From TrEMBL, chain A:
<dbReference type="Pfam" id="PF08402">
    <property type="entry name" value="TOBE_2"/>
</dbReference>
<keyword id="KW-0547">Nucleotide-binding</keyword>
<dbReference type="GO" id="GO:0005524">
    <property type="term" value="F:ATP binding"/>
</dbReference>
<dbReference type="GO" id="GO:0043190">
    <property type="term" value="C:ATP-binding cassette (ABC) transporter complex"/>
</dbReference>
<keyword id="KW-0067">ATP-binding</keyword>
<dbReference type="InterPro" id="IPR017871">
    <property type="entry name" value="ABC_transporter-like_CS"/>
</dbReference>
<keyword id="KW-0813">Transport</keyword>
<comment type="similarity">
    <text>Belongs to the ABC transporter superfamily.</text>
</comment>
<dbReference type="Pfam" id="PF00005">
    <property type="entry name" value="ABC_tran"/>
</dbReference>
<dbReference type="GO" id="GO:0016887">
    <property type="term" value="F:ATP hydrolysis activity"/>
</dbReference>
<dbReference type="InterPro" id="IPR003593">
    <property type="entry name" value="AAA+_ATPase"/>
</dbReference>
<dbReference type="GO" id="GO:0015697">
    <property type="term" value="P:quaternary ammonium group transport"/>
</dbReference>
<dbReference type="InterPro" id="IPR027417">
    <property type="entry name" value="P-loop_NTPase"/>
</dbReference>
<dbReference type="InterPro" id="IPR003439">
    <property type="entry name" value="ABC_transporter-like_ATP-bd"/>
</dbReference>
<dbReference type="InterPro" id="IPR050093">
    <property type="entry name" value="ABC_SmlMolc_Importer"/>
</dbReference>
<dbReference type="InterPro" id="IPR013611">
    <property type="entry name" value="Transp-assoc_OB_typ2"/>
</dbReference>
<dbReference type="GO" id="GO:0022857">
    <property type="term" value="F:transmembrane transporter activity"/>
</dbReference>
Amino acid sequence: MTAVLHLRDVVKHYGDTRALDRINLSLPSDAYISLLGPSGSGKTTLLRVIAGFERLEAGEISFQGSRIDTLPPHARGIGFVFQNFALFPHLSVEDNIAFGLKNSAINPVTDPGVVKRRVRDIIALVGLTGLEDRGVSQISGGQKQRVALARTLVTEPKMVLLDEPLGALDANLRMRMRSELRSIRERCGVTFLHVTGSETEALAMGDTVLVLDRNRIAQHGDADTIYNRPCSPAVARFLNCYNLLPGRISGEAFETAAGSLPLGGLRQSSENPVYAIRYDRVSIRPQDAAPGVDEAGVEATFIASEYTGAAINSFFTLADGSVFEVEQHLSHAAPSSYEPQTAYRLAWNREDALVYS
Amino acid sequence: MTMPHLAEDTAPVAVALPRARAGNLWLVAPGVLWMVLFLVLPIAMMVYVSFWTQTTFKIEPTLTLQSWITFFSSDTYLGALWTTIRIWLIVLATTLLVGYPAALFVGLFVKNKTLQTVLLVLCVIPFWTSFLIRVLAWRPMLGKEGAINLILMKLGIVSQPIEVLLFSELSVIIGMTQIYCVFMVGPIAFMLGRIDPSIIEAAQDLGAGFWRIFRTIILPLSMPGVVVGAIFVSVMVLGEFATSAALSGRKVNLLGNIIVTQVGSLKWAFAAVAGVILTILMGAVVAVLLRVVDLRKEL
């Protein structure tokens, strides 16, 4: 895999707030890349800077070997799919898709036959056949999504940027469009950079996942690495599947407000020491159960549980009042019921923990 | 567990959509009564009176076509009809020419909503003075020894004052353009302000240059505003008489001026003929403009 897009020390401010803080990035060609970040982390800004809608203040962007940061959006060869689709409301599906071919300032396609053929091909590719003459207000959300994608793909960009493309769809459709987007990308062979605030979406879709935190790239890797070995407490927090216990290292143990935990598992460096344990690695025991070999554990009070279908999420409070979440997959065992306001012992293998110090 | 919830959720929705029942029609009764008494009946009356017999000092309800024949066989009156149409078309064009760029600036290029409102209010400020003062203020501006001629002569651009500036068709057009321009700016700026900025960015990203985007996206999306503005300006300009009376030195006679003079000399039947023709003209203009854009779909 060769890298197509390079960002070096890219900086962007809005007034006094720093939206992008020296971003360095290399993206491979012909891949699906997802960019995960909480709201306000600068992910939309990053996309808009790459697309050319925002000027960067420092640093440089090169694409396929040449600098593009001074070029206008349309000269960059990068397509953009907007979060709200931004379809032209007065044009039909077909005219929306043909817009870029007919109206491009650089090499517009003037032969109506060629326009017709290329539009027809792309309509077939995204699965919109039969809707050519509909107005864009007469089609469903998922179909609008496809029109927005087709409108960009028909101009044959080398890379497509998608700004929360599934955000405007309902949950059911979102799941189906995930695999749809991946297969459309594979058929076209272009790079997709997909921005999302949903950790499940980022992990499910990206061949490579980028995590953006406080306007910098916090981690860059495949989904498995990101999920199992988040490189900082912040990344672990976005993944929404880790209990994070702040504290400090003292000898062979990690001291937290809820008690002392034996060290183990992966140790990574971080400014603020944090002990992290995944929701689904924890087992719930009676309060007086003896700790097993190589186990760490805390005492906690059960509050409530939430049934999610395949799993049950139980919520506990620790001695310092913080919430501790435990996920039990129902395929492993029938759910047991717990008494609210009763103390239990939560235990896990010390090797499953991640320690940041 | 979810089923009873669903039933509860849908039940009030069905109740919340009452059909228009006969009892509810009373809600429109005051409005209908008002319009019948003060709009429909007077228009019917006007049409009726236009067929009455008019002698020099009195008018009798004996039906005749005489007033209509006089109107259509007189060069003065047909000339007034033609002048009305010509001035209307010119003012429509000038208000669009002056108003559209202004609306484009306010509605599209000013991103700050507060500044947008301030600029639109600035357009309306001239309306804080009375109509007559606004019209008459053009006289010291355009006159032979008015501000414009004075400045042009001081700068040595002209040696003789330009006389055509005041008491001519040009002065009427200048005055009307200034007065009615804001009615064009408002609706267009409103429509332009509603265009999602990402639509324009999408067009840029797809490679279109500014003029292409203007022609294929911005102009079509602002057409409802243009049509509404054109209806405002047309209805007001077609019924105008004060501006032409004050700025043309009675050289430009519009249908409105004919009505004013005829009513002044108690020629009610003849004034009614002019009134009916003006009403038909306005109705036709509005009908044609509404054909251009389906406002119900766009607004």
